[in-house]
Give the backbone structure.
Amino acid sequence: MLKHISIKGYKSIKELDLDLFPINVLIGANGSGKSNFISFFKLLRWMIQRTGQLQFFVGQSGGASSFLFDGSAVTPQIEAELNFETTSGKNDYFFRLFYAASDTFIFAEEKYRRNIYSNSTGQGLLNVRSNNLRTAIQRNYSDNSGNIDISPFSGLATWKSLDAGHKESRLIDDINLGNQISTDIFYLIQSFETHQFHDTSQTARFKQRWSIDDNQRLKEDAGNLAPFLLKVRDNEPRYYQRIVETLSQIAPFFDDFVLAPVGNTILLQWREKGTDLIFSPYQASDGTLRAMALVTLLLQPPDSLPDVLILDEPELGLHPYAINIIGSLINSVSNRCQVILATQSPLLVDCFEPEDIIVVERNGRESSFKRLIVEELEDWLEEYSLSELWNKNVIGGRP
């Protein structure tokens, strides 16, 4: 799980230090910085892909200056650190991207480390298994558990530098040398999946035929929705049936998908109750198509889920009843993967607990992020819902 993130100099995020929970719901006015926070994870994914992808992504997104807080004249670099906790320990990744000629970035610094010990105090615990050694230790320590405190600054937490001056991340180079820690960090970052199903235009990718072999993961725009559903139907029929049943709750006319490959491609199609006609994406409402993508994403088999699932305004175009169902599914999926989402929907906010909510506001030129503190709202919550407190501007997040 991603436990903490710090960012400096990225778009409207001048400086951020944020603890992350299993569910993290960003609320705030338009332009407050929610989408900038989410876009940072897209930058990360592109940054650690194969050589050339960072510079390609930066160029396609308007150049390096567009990523910097108030531009390169004000902010010459982006700095970030990510802290993960896994069963193997605490993994940290740090980088600084410096503005360079031709509106590009170079790495001013890149490094990682692993603490094989960690707990809530930031100190480590070494478990002693030998009974003789345990006895000797217990004579000198008041704690009879057999645990020895280790300074968090011990050699176990030494940073491994990947040097500076390179244009693309060197994590992959380190992986090729057989380094397990860099491999773990690489796959942790690769496990960030950002999904946004806003595009339902005539050229939207999930309205086109798609290769049946491109089905490993649901793409960020659900372009491969049909082949992904085909794989789930054939390999995990129980989960496929849950998807169909849930869609029938949102759209009572929906009966089942028609997943019939033609050659090596497949088109998203379905049947509706009371007719033998087969329908295509061009005949559906935007909300129905988005519901199909969201329900498939959230009810896919657990083994297919990413470690961190990032959603940008999943409520767009959905009926209030559908929003409540999506909120319930997000709560359920958070037991298996971490969720970060941005929303403008009061209805969706009411699906979560106060401690899940992060209020994003624009203070002058910069964005601020504040997680709600339950104790500060106890009296208010006895009479009002979270959405009512948001609308009344008690918790902030309004223009």
Notes: Residues 93 and 112 are 4 Å apart (CA to CA). Residues 1-21+31-116+160-195 form a domain with the Rossmann fold fold (CATH 3.40.50). The radius of gyration is 24 Å.
